[in-house]
Design brief:
heterotrimer; A mainly alpha; B alpha/beta; C alpha/beta; A: mainly alpha; two-stranded antiparallel ribbon; 69% helix; C: alpha/beta; six-stranded mixed beta sheet; four-stranded antiparallel beta sheet; membrane (chain A); Polar amino acid transport system permease protein (chain A); cell membrane (chain A)
Chain lengths: 340, 342, 275
């Protein structure tokens, strides 16, 4: 503060190291606060003691919380350590990942199809898509899973053939439908409804002029969608869909309804066998979910960066680049401060 | 639209359906993680069933000699006899309820007194046991749909459930209060000591009825007893050690198991006193549950009575430390908890 | 026209010389009406643009100029009447004495022969300048990729933007973007190019460079239909000026006739306001 208010050197004997100010500047008596030469002086940054104090307080609080987490016996970190990579937990983790991966891909594909149907010129397709989205957004996922799980009791066989006509090929459904498949189908059906709205919003976010330009150039319809509209729509789709995906990761914890134990299901199951370890088990699940979400967020950052080509004049820096830049400015600033 | 064109459209549609189905089929290459089979190797030829395997301290691993009884097999409905297997439903997902049904100490196999008893019954009837673990809801939907033959899952016989199911009783409850070790409260059968307490209980259970009766009596005396419900044992346990509730009122075997498991943790618990599951009015019975009119209740009850008479029943209860819950005989559709509270 | 950008001016010399320049095509508009619901936008337009002719369409906003252009390349379907290009109907075909709608695929093929330059450029922001220009010839099967990129570079040179081939559109000024858009339209080798107010979205100092490129196209003998507000430019390049008002063609003729001696009061009023 004091630096900024009081110039280091008296005005009329302007520092000799500076480029000589033009005499015109010196002749009229200048007011005391006006700088001697405004041309190429570096501005001394404003000091902010308040910010330093709040930062310090925040850091102390954070340290206390971490210390509390580490030392409170309630969390039983030794048991956390025991459970963290137990086969039963990693098996559950694999189920979570498998179900999420399949459902994310199938859900997105279904969502694209539904979104295209919703935006198509056929009123029948539009209506079917609307009804599907309406239905699956209304029905709780648990009910969908429960229904699918007991589907085989309602329909013993699935057959291929002319609808309402003779069939050529029969499946015994209870053999076809593994628990994993039921879970994936259930989550995908549900996910597709939400993905459809995300994709539709993305497509609508593409400027009408882009559609017109593509049409005016006579680009084939498929090319218009795949190369012109979709890449631009993805810019809007990716963040929302990743959000959806993170919800899906945790949504998989409902798959115990189809007798499949994912990460959270395994934790619950072990919690009942080892009631003394419920808290560390819940922490294990939490840490795994934090890891999964973090990985997805990192992937999201780079995917978004990829699809922002052309939309921004310069790409945003990666976290590493930002960290490096931040450190450099900090070092420069510290050097400058210590020099004065 | 011409006829030829419409049939082509229909074919295209059905082909599309097929493609969708197959895609999904390819995607599903994972496997079921739970619903594993029996806890140990059962071989009908050896005439023995192992119970209380992988019990994690809740029981003592025991071989029980048992073999098919032809006359009981003859009682089975034709469809079950022909299939040669008994699908035993357990509703222990995602969280089990040890020692009755839970994932054992190998951290992957379903064990517990309930599936063990189902396997004993299957052995007497000369059927291959297939144990299916599912959620509580799916256990009943499974029985409704015919996916599951019989539920052995600590199911209480109630008049409400009798509308849809037949029962063959095999066990009674004893109840207990679980409190933290630091608590000074004890229960000696005098419900007035519950005044001012907050107690958790399982919804829709026999013990809930008992607790609610006490609550009503205390209220009449101008005192308060707060009753809390939690979705499963894990949540109840957390609430107890976290101080949200003063006590948990539940089945004695489960509470005994939790206390044993808790002993080495920073938040140990203890038993504050037991109470007969007979309650104030009626003894609640645990029963094997089959679809109404399936014809399975009678052969199962007869099989249980055979096990009682020949000593395997007592060995099974002893293996799981449940001897104080024995019934003298198995009944088909005994009087259950009445439909309404009043 | 004094603000002629240096790079654009240097591009002018080779525009006319190209040997494989497609033959210009005549445009005929036959009794076209266009309604949006009850709102009448075009009210019986008959217009013939001879091959190689440069026609400038003037008129107050809302007079239907842009809609007319969009009807010509079938971005809008006329409610009545039709447009033909070199004698071939656009978006429709004659069948047993009646006009029938073409499939979208056929319409897209026809559009490849009509260049269209938008007011807001509408370049594809996620593609580089080169990809913008080369996309259509590749996608429609006109050229192979290497061939198309080679031609695209030549076209970019012609509009003075050869060095910007690898930039993204948003890194360019408005005038540069519009010149890329013109190159993109040229890449399909159209027989006619339609310009929909090509300079209206530009800062005044960028207008010249775009008009210079259009002027060179005019000199090259391509059929051009230009909707614009640049009266001076119209006077300079137009073979014919068409004045529209209220969805009708009010008067047409040489620039001297329409701009200097307008006969219709609406034309007189419009010109007195803009000049």
């Amino acid at each position: 503060m004091s630096d900024a208010l009081a110039p280091a050197v008296p005005l009329d004997t302007a520092s000799p190291s500076d480029t000589d100010p033009p005499p015109a500047h010196r002749n009229p008596p200048v007011t005391a606060t006006a700088p001697a030469s405004g041309s190429s002086q570096r501005v001394v940054p404003l000091r902010n003691p308040g910010r330093w104090i709040t930062s310090a307080v925040a850091l102390v609080l954070l340290a206390q919380i971490v210390h509390g987490l580490a030392t409170n016996p309630f969390y039983q970190w030794d048991r956390f350590h025991y459970w963290f990579a137990r086969p039963v937990i990693t098996d559950g983790l694999v189920v979570t990942l498998e179900v999420t991966a399949y459902s994310a891909v199938l859900g997105l594909l279904g969502g694209v199809v539904l979104a295209l149907a919703r935006l198509s010129r056929s009123p029948v397709l539009r209506a079917i898509s609307w009804v599907y989205i309406w239905l699956f957004r209304s029905v709780p996922l648990i009910v969908v899973l429960l229904f699918l799980y007991n589907f085989s009791a309602l329909y013993r066989t699935l057959s291929l053939g002319v609808p309402f006509g003779p069939s050529f090929w029969h499946f015994d459904e209870s053999k076809l439908a593994t628990d994993m498949m039921i879970a994936v189908v259930g989550l995908s059906l549900n996910e597709a409804a939400y993905a459809a709205e995300v994709v539709r919003a993305g497509i609508l976010s593409v400027d009408q002029g882009q559609h017109e330009a593509a049409a005016a150039l006579g680009l084939p319809r498929r090319y218009q969608f795949a190369r012109i509209v979709l890449p631009q729509a993805l810019r809007a789709i990716v963040p929302s869909y990743v959000n959806q995906l993170i919800g899906l990761v945790k949504g998989t914890s409902l798959v115990f309804y189809v007798s499949l134990l994912d990460l959270f299901g395994s934790v619950q199951s072990m919690g009942s066998t080892y009631p003394g370890d419920i808290v560390p088990l819940l922490l294990v699940a939490t840490v795994w979910y934090v890891i999964l979400t973090s990985v997805i967020s990192v992937v999201q950052f780079y995917v978004e960066r990829h699809y922002s080509r052309g939309a921004l004049r310069t790409l945003p820096p990666t976290p590493l680049q930002r960290l490096r830049a931040g450190l450099t400015t900090l070092i420069v600033r510290i050097r400058r401060e210590t020099a004065t | 639209m011409t006829h030829a064109r419409s049939s082509r459209l229909l074919r295209a549609l059905s082909a599309g359906t097929a493609a969708a189905t197959l895609t999904v089929g390819l995607a599903a290459c994972g496997s079921a993680a739970s619903s594993s089979d029996a806890a140990s190797v059962d071989n009908a030829a050896t005439g023995a069933v192992t119970v209380a395997a992988l019990a994690n301290g809740a029981g003592t691993r025991t071989y029980i000699k048992v073999s098919e009884v032809a006359s009981l097999h003859a009682e089975l409905p034709a469809s079950v006899a022909k299939g040669g297997q008994l699908v035993i439903g357990v509703g222990a997902l995602p969280a089990g309820f040890p020692p009755l049904a839970f994932v054992g100490s190998d951290q992957q196999t379903l064990t517990g007194s309930e599936p063990d008893f189902g396997r004993l019954v299957a052995a007497v009837l000369g059927l291959k046991p297939v144990v299916q673990n599912s959620t509580w809801e799916n256990l009943f939907v499974g029985i409704d749909s015919g996916r599951t033959d019989v539920g052995f899952s600590n199911i209480t016989d109630t008049e409400e459930r009798k509308k849809k199911y037949d029962f063959a009783s095999y066990r009674e409850d004893n109840l207990a209060f679980e409190v933290t070790r630091t608590s000074t409260w004890n229960f000696n059968g005098d419900w007035t000591t519950l005044a001012g307490k907050t107690v958790a209980v399982g919804a829709g259970t026999n013990q809930e009825k008992i607790l609610l009766e006490w609550q009503a009596k205390l209220k009449a005396a101008g005192k308060q007893l707060t009753v809390k419900y939690f979705p499963d044992n894990n949540a109840t346990h957390l609430a107890l050690v976290g101080g949200k509730i003063d006590a948990y009122f539940g089945p004695n075997p489960g509470i005994a198991y939790q206390i044993a498991q808790d002993a080495r943790t920073p938040n140990p618990t203890r038993n504050a006193g037991t109470y007969s599951g007979a309650g104030a009015s009626l003894q609640g019975l645990i029963a094997a549950t089959v679809k109404k009119g399936s014809g399975l209740a009678r052969p199962i009850a007869d099989a249980i009575n055979y096990l009682i008479k020949n000593g395997q029943y007592a060995k099974w209860l002893a293996a799981w430390n449940l001897s104080n819950e024995a019934v003298p005989t198995s009944l088909v559709n005994p009087p259950g908890l009445p439909l309404t509270d009043s | 026209m004094s603000v002629l950008n240096a790079e654009a001016r240097s591009a002018t010399t080779h525009l006319a010389a190209d040997a494989d320049e497609p033959a210009p095509v005549a445009v005929e508009v036959h009794g076209v009406h266009k309604w949006y619901g009850a709102h009448r936008v075009l009210d019986g337009i008959d217009l013939t643009v001879a091959a190689g002719e440069v026609t400038v369409v003037l008129g107050p906003s809302g007079s239907g100029k842009s809609t007319l252009l969009r009807v010509i390349n079938h971005l809008e379907q006329p409610t009545l009447g039709h447009v033909s290009l070199g004698g071939e109907p656009i978006g429709v075909r004659w069948h047993r004495g009646r006009l029938r709608e073409l499939s979208e695929r056929q319409i897209l093929t026809q559009r490849g022969r009509i260049g269209f330059v938008f007011q807001n450029f509408n370049l594809f922001p996620h593609l580089t300048v080169l990809e913008n220009v080369a996309a259509a010839p590749v996608a429609t099967g006109l050229q192979r990729r290497t061939e198309a990129e080679q031609s695209a570079r030549e076209l970019l040179d012609r509009v003075g933007l050869g060095e910007k081939a690898d930039a993204y559109p948003r890194q360019l000024s408005g005038g540069q973007q519009q010149r890329v858009a013109i190159a993109r339209a040229l890449a399909q080798r159209p027989g006619v190019i339609l310009f929909d107010e090509p300079t209206s979205a530009l800062d005044p100092e960028l207008v010249g460079e775009v008009l210079a490129v259009i002027k060179d196209l005019a000199a090259g003998g391509t059929t051009l239909v230009i909707v614009t507000h640049e009266i001076g430019f119209a006077r300079e390049v137009a073979d014919r000026v068409v004045f529209m008002d209220g969805g009708r063609i009010v008067e047409q003729g040489t620039p001297a006739e329409v701009l200097d001696r307008p006969r219709h009061p609406r034309t007189q009023e419009f010109l007195s306001r803009v000049l």
